[in-house]
Design a protein that fits this description.
94 residues, mainly alpha
Length: 94
Amino acid sequence: MTKFARNNKEILLHFTEILGRSLLLPLISKKSKIRIAALESLSAVLYCGIWKYTAVIFEILVGYRDPNMIPLTDFFESNININYLATFINDQKV
């Protein structure tokens, strides 16, 4: 993903949110090599996009949700927002 984002920077302007969302699961992986690779890929993806798409990625990474916008599914199912950046603070392998 890192090489793909760096080589196709001009093409990926509008796809940074999708690429950023695809890196959320590797960011909380149990293996440190995968977390490091996901973090490097995320930094390459953030350089690709327009500021409004990168701002959405940062909102997802910190688990922020606008208090005035509540999805309908929250009334029927529990929804957990994970602060992905805080998981790096608690990481055993620095």
